[in-house]
């Protein structure tokens, strides 16, 4: 296969990122790589692509090296192909269509942990938005700052949810769940027998967010392999700005950088174990970042577009995630909360 021009491909990517109003640092990464690659003799470039040493060139990182290698192999870089695919889509229309396809929300909090409203009020707000289901996912015990639920309190909540369901419209169902902490060893912070009773389990890292790459990767891979986990919550743990509006644990918090981990390995594991990657809709999270969301799409992952709502009005944050999903060409049928409640429960129960 005839090699492509890697410099032209990198510059094309930078141009398309600029047109999409992406972050300047991301555009500069591709422009810097193009400049560095242009200065290298073609024979040396081919040799480096063959032996995997492209990243040793100044200005060339993991993503840009992969693009160069794909170009030299005569393939249109996956990153460029994805940008071209999304550039031909009316993102507003695509985001609206995806929002219309969503029939539920798999991540929400009540005043049983760090939310601001009772479970019933959250359920009624979801009904008002046209949802067919809402999963209540209050925090687990070790997140004491968020008033995490002990096993005893969680059992009490399950009884409450059963009682609330009796008074809700027949076409709507309040589902049981938890946002369980992924602990330092990758285990899940709740009694396994109790986790097995829940409809949907979201697993998230809330502590040790500055663990080094290898430690965090092992931790996440261990959790993903756990049969009780269904959705990997806000995978980088980043915060873009201070949070307010019902989230007692994080109100007034500062921005926080992303955790570092081997995203390719983590998303490959999600695909292998059929776990969903959450597209978190909170304005202060918007997690994962678009570069990682595109990587998860390429890995063939399932997704769950969730509000992580801590108050009734926040349940209407779904468009935030839909816009990002549309921009990254997330397939509609790969989003688990576009499914009927029966299909969702069959999928979650299959783990």
Task: Identify the notable features of this structure and list them briefly.
351 residues; alpha/beta; DNA polymerase, domain 1; TIM Barrel; 2 domains; 7-stranded parallel sheet; 7 strands; 44% helix; 9% strand; elongated
Helical/strand content category = alpha/beta
Query: What is the CATH topology of the largest domain?
Result: TIM Barrel
Shape summary: elongated
Unreliable parts: 242-252
Strand order of the largest sheet: 1-2-3-4-5-6-7
Number of domains: 2
What is the number of helical segments per DSSP (H or I, 4+ residues)?
Answer: 14
Overall average pLDDT: 92
| Beta fraction | 5-15%
Task: Please state the second-level CATH architecture of the largest domain.
Answer: Alpha-Beta Barrel
How helical, in percent, are the residues? 40-55%
Structure description:
Strand 2, helix 8 and strand 3 form a beta-alpha-beta unit. It is built from 14 helices and seven strands. The chain has helices at about 5-20, 25-40, 40-50, 60-70, 80-85, 90-100, 120-130, 150-165, 190-195, 215-225, 265-275, 290-300, 320-325, 340-350, and strands at about 105, 135, 175-180, 200-205, 230, 275-280, 300-305. Strands 1-2-3-4-5-6-7 form a seven-stranded parallel β-sheet. Helix 1 runs antiparallel to helix 2 (about 25-40) and helix 6 (about 90-100) packs across helix 13. With about 350 residues, the protein is α/β, with parallel strands linked by helices. Mean pLDDT is about 90; it is low at about 240-250. It folds into two domains: about 5-85, DNA polymerase beta, N-terminal domain-like (DNA polymerase, domain 1, Orthogonal Bundle), CATH 1.10.150.110; about 90-350, TIM Barrel.
């Amino acid at each position: 296969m005839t090699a492509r021009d890697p410099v032209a491909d990198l510059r094309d990517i930078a141009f398309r990122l600029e047109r999409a109003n992406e972050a300047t640092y991301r555009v500069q990464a591709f422009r810097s790589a193009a400049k560095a690659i242009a200065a290298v003799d073609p024979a040396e470039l081919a040799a480096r692509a063959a032996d995997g040493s492209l990243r040793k060139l100044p200005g060339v990182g993991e993503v840009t090296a992969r693009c160069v290698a794909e170009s030299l192999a005569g393939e249109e870089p996956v990153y460029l192909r994805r940008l071209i695919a999304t550039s031909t889509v009316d993102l507003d229309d695509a985001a609206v269509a995806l929002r219309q396809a969503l029939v539920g929300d798999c991540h929400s909090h009540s005043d049983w942990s760090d939310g601001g409203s009772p479970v019933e009020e959250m359920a009624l707000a979801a009904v008002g938005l046209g949802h067919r289901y809402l999963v209540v996912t209050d925090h687990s015990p070790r997140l004491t700052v968020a008033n995490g639920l002990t096993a005893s309190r969680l059992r009490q909540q399950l009884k409450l949810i059963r009682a609330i369901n009796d008074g809700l419209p027949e076409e709507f169902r309040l589902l049981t769940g938890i946002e369980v902490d992924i602990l330092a060893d990758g285990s899940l912070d709740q009694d396994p027998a109790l986790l097995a009773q829940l409809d949907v389990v979201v697993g998230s890292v809330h502590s040790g967010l500055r663990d080094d790459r290898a430690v965090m990767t092992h931790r996440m891979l261990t959790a993903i392999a756990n049969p009780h986990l269904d959705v990997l919550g806000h995978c980088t743990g980043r915060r873009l700005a201070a949070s307010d509006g019902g989230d007692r644990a994080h109100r007034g918090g500062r921005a926080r950088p992303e955790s570092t981990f081997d995203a390719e390995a983590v998303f490959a594991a999600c695909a292998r174990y059929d776990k969903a990657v959450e597209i978190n809709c909170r304005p202060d999270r918007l997690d994962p970042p678009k570069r990682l969301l595109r990587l998860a799409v390429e890995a063939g992952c399932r997704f769950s577009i969730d509000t992580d709502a801590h108050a009734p009005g926040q349940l209407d944050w779904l468009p935030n995630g839909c816009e990002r999903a549309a921009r990254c060409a997330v397939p509609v049928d790969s989003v688990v909360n576009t499914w009927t409640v029966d299909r969702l429960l069959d999928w979650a129960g299959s783990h």
